[in-house]
């Protein structure tokens, strides 16, 4: 009996020490919590995601970060425009900032920062249920409802700026396929000429690496515009220190000064 009590006491002490060590390691940044899972066993992608800062580069603590992509006037997303077919190259030369559909509050087909969850902003929220993964974009109040229960693409809805999406799980990775796009939006915004056709096809792969990290890979294919598919550089997002996005709407009034500036000769050019 004495031995059993002593053994139990030693075991409890060891467990407490291990728990304290794990907690201290987590607080010091040497250990990272595992990604949460839903009741059906899949990784839970829910949360507000960003790159550590909102538009303008300001973090929640008031600091700043180096942006991952250029601002207004920056070139088209790396690789996308370089894959234009000759006819697309000729068309691109006729377009400039003033033709950017986002100046008229039109959502992009993919995203200015190479993250479709962001659209033209830098913050997005994911809500996951047993049948759907819902992606909410802070800027322009955009959203995408992605069924994950095996249903096919809908054939009774009109084309849209964000396309029609369906998803499925491959292990711990959510694979999202998007089709049925309009041809009136651009891949990105802010002066990046990146038009596409209604044959655009996007495949995205989402993997929650740990409790605070989301990795996204994507491939964009447009046989009517590109010479080959564009493989987007892997994007790594962080869990934001807040759990709700804001409403950042667009009525056209806010963008009127931008449209006026973009219409001027040599705007943004040095």
What is the overall number of helices? 3
Flag low-confidence runs.
1-30, 62-77
Mean pLDDT: 81
Determine the strand fraction and express it as a percent band: 15-25%
Shape: globular
What distance lies between the first and last C-alpha atoms, to the nearest angstrom? 86 Å
Kindly provide the radius of gyration, computed on alpha-carbon positions and rounded to a whole number of angstroms. 23 Å
Strands of the widest sheet, in order across it, are 4-3-2-1-9-8-7-6-5
Largest sheet: 9 strands, antiparallel
How many beta-strand elements?
A: 9
Give the helix/strand class.
Answer: alpha+beta
Count of all domains: 1
Approximate helicity band:
10-25%
Account of the protein in words:
This protein is an alpha+beta fold. The protein has one domain. Helix content is 15%, strand content 24%. It is built from three helices and nine strands, in the order H-E-H-E-E-E-E-E-E-E-E-H. Strands 4-3-2-1-9-8-7-6-5 form a nine-stranded antiparallel sheet, with no helix packed on it. Strand 2 and strand 3 form a beta hairpin. The chain starts with a helix and ends in an 8-residue tail after the last helix.
